[in-house]
Every structure is written in C-alpha cells, then in structure tokens.
Write a structure and sequence with these properties.
By secondary structure, this protein is of the alpha/beta class. It has two domains: 11-238, TIM Barrel (Alpha-Beta Barrel); 242-329 and 337-371, Beta Barrel (Lyase, Ornithine Decarboxylase, Chain A, domain 1). It is built from twelve helices and 16 strands. The chain has helices spanning 11-28, 45-48, 60-70, 86-89, 101-107, 170-183, 185-188, 209-222, 235-238, 266-269, 272-275, 364-371; strands spanning 6-10, 31-35, 54-57, 74-77, 95-98, 116-120, 157-161, 193-195, 228-231, 242-254, 257-262, 294-299, 308-314, 323-327, 347-352, 355-360. The strands form two sheets. Strands 1, 10, 11, 12, 13, 14, 15 and 16 form an eight-stranded mixed sheet that branches. Strands 2-3-4-5-6-7-8-9 form an eight-stranded parallel beta barrel. The relative contact order is 0.15.
Length: 374
C-alpha cells in the first residue's frame, strides 16, 4: 500500500513526452537543456538525459545535482551569485550566464578562459498567466534591457540567454523571437550561441510543433553564423506525467459549506495553486462545479486560513479515508514544497510498468535536520 500523501510520477508518460521532445529536437536541430528548477528527481534523470544534452541550473545545489547525476554540461544562470559559491561552481560549469553587465564585470576575471560566458537579455515581451511568472513585465529585474545595446557587447560574452515565457504556445514563442531580433540586433551578430530559455510547453496537446520548428528555421536564416541554439524547458519533460495522491481525513460543514479536510496542503505542497493562482483538477470530481451534485471545498492540512480550494462536485458523497487525485502534479510541485507546520511531506514515488517504487518517504528526521544539527 502506498503512503499518503504521495507525488506519483508515471515513467511511461515521461517517456511519451521524451519521444515528442526528441522528434522536435532533431527536426529543429536544437539542443535541449533540462531545467532542474521545475523537476529534479534523480530516479528519472537517466531517462530524461537520453534526450537532454545538458542541464540548466540556477544555484550551487542544482548545479551539483545535475553534475553528479548526469556528467553532462551544466549551464548556469542565477539572478545573482554568492561569492562563497563561485569556487565550487567553476569546475562543474560549462556555460556561465550573468544577469547583468555589472555582475559580468565583477566576476569575469575569476572564470577560466575556456568557459563559455553568456548574458541574459530581456526584450520586454513576456507570456505568462500571472505577473509573478512573467520575466518580461515592465521593471523586471531579470535580464539586461534593450537600452544596453548602445554599448558594444564585451568580447568574452559568446552568447545570449532570453527567457520570458511560461507554459507558452508556439505563437508566443514566435513573437518572442521577433522581439529579440528587433530589440537586440546590435548584439546578435557578435555572438556564437543563443539560449532561448524555458516556458515552451511543446508536449501539451494542441501545441503547434510545426510553427515552433518554422520559427527556429527563420531564426537560423536571420542569424546564420550561430553555432548553437538551445532551449531549456522543464514542464514539457513531465507534462501530465504525475499526480498528487491525497486522503480525506475529515468531513465537516460551516455556514452551509461542506468541507473535505485532506492530508495535503495547497500552500505547502502545491504552492503554485495559490501563487498563480489556479484551481487544480481533481480526477474524481466533475469537470466543473455543479451544486446539483455533492459539492465540497477542499481544506488543506496546515493552519493557514487560506490553505483551501474549491468548490468541487462529485457524483457520490465523499467518505473518510477516500483517495483523491490531484492531476498534473509533477512539475513545479515537490521542488517548491515546504515543511510549514511540520506537516507530513508527500512521499516521492515512481510508477513503473510493473508496479510502484517508493523513491523517498519523509519522516521526523527530515524535518528535524532542517532545523538543527542533532
């Protein structure tokens, strides 16, 4: 019997996504970098790294994880770098991307001549469901603005990095490329490579793969000198390949509202649902609330007043101990969870073709180790 709660990742669905991504990679002749910020489960990295050409990391811990479990090139970008991390990052990093020219000038002398150095740019076009996820919004701290192109690009910068999409379609990608070509023309002709960032939801049903490939080919015609084009999706690798399994602990009513109290938390285990916000799908519920049926609000297990979601409607009344399944909970879930309130952290489980494998089950020692040495 599986522990509850649990994040369950379905290996066969990950492999379906990888088949799609491999086809796009070969047709567009681009490199795929696996961005650890959205999904970082070593148990599935051997599968992913059969298709990905390297990993994209945004911290020392991510860089170390990617290097240790892949031995493939580590492409590093962070909004800022801690001085104490730099000596450890240098020997495991192949491409180092700076967020500003000021940071570049501060650190470039510390980096070996053999290292590829890039600069993040921001064409002030972004596509995201909410401003919190939109790096292209006005006043964004992420990336150098177009006004910087009045100065020549420093000679050691061999490539540019742009990332202003979030779960975007191919049409948004085409607009981004046009914005990049218009805003950063003075620099684009003096670089050797271009990293087009993440947010490309290539494996979502309905994504226009042909338009994506056409846009890449158009970019190559405009910039034929480029030696390398890459993207660094994260969600696309594991889109709809996992779920969060929860259990009903209590059923109660307040002011005419029925509550199903769960052993999971929206704030601690599914933080994007409150930050975006969005309402996650429960597979056992009706597609839309219908008060002609049994309707409940879901209560999270923490003491936060806003740790809740709803309403959801069901054909039959919920029961104590019943399992509920939150759909599409592989990407940006367990990489963002917290141990707030000391609540039980969901186990990490891989669903194999012949059964389930518990990769990690969390206990009191995991909680204590975060707070003390003993």
């Amino acid at each position: 019997m599986l522990p509850s709660p649990a994040f369950i990742i379905e290996r066969t669905k990950v492999r379906d996504n990888l088949t799609c991504l491999r086809r796009v990679k070969e047709s567009a002749q681009i490199q795929l970098l696996f961005a650890l910020k959205g999904f970082a489960l070593p148990a599935l990295m051997p599968d992913i790294l059969q298709v990905a050409d390297g990993v994209a990391a945004s911290s020392l811990n991510e860089a170390l994880l990617g290097y240790l479990h892949s031995r493939k090139p580590v492409h590093l970008y962070a909004p800022a770098y801690r001085p104490s991390d730099v000596p450890e990052l240098i020997p495991i990093t192949s491409t180092w991307i700076f967020n500003s020219l000021e940071a570049y000038h501060r650190w470039v002398a510390h980096l070996p001549e053999s290292m590829e150095i890039g600069l993040r740019v921001n064409p002030h076009y972004g596509y995201a469901g909410a401003d919190i996820y939109n790096p292209g919004r006005p006043g964004s701290r992420l990336g150098v603005p177009p006004t910087a192109t009045t100065q020549p690009l420093p000679s050691r910068i061999t490539g540019l990095h742009v990332h202003t999409l979030c779960e975007a379609n191919a049409e948004a990608f085409a607009v981004l490329i046009q914005s990049l070509l218009e805003q950063f023309a003075p620099w684009l002709h003096s670089i050797r490579w271009l990293n087009l960032g993440g947010g490309h939801l290539i494996t979502r049903v309905g994504y226009d793969i042909d338009l994506f490939i056409e846009t890449i080919h158009h970019l190559r015609k405009r910039l034929p000198h480029l030696e390398r084009l890459s993207i660094e999706p994260s969600a696309a690798f594991v889109w709809e390949a996992g779920y969060l399994q929860a259990q009903v602990l209590d059923i109660t009513e307040t002011a005419g509202r029925q509550w199903a109290m769960l052993d999971v938390s929206f704030t601690a285990h599914m933080p994007d649902t409150l930050e975006m916000p969005y309402k996650p799908i429960i597979r056992e519920a009706l597609p839309h609330p219908d008060f002609a049926y049994h309707t409940y609000w879901m209560g999270g297990v923490t003491c936060l007043a806003g740790d809740e979601m709803g309403p959801y409607s069901f054909v039959r009344p919920l029961e104590l101990g019943q399992t509920l399944t939150f759909h599409d909970m592989a990407h940006y879930t367990f990489v963002k969870t917290t141990l707030f309130n000391g609540v039980a952290h969901p186990a990490l489980v891989v669903k194999e073709e012949n059964g389930y494998r518990i990769v990690k089950a969390f206990d009191f020692e995991d909680y204590r180790r975060r707070l003390s040495n003993g």
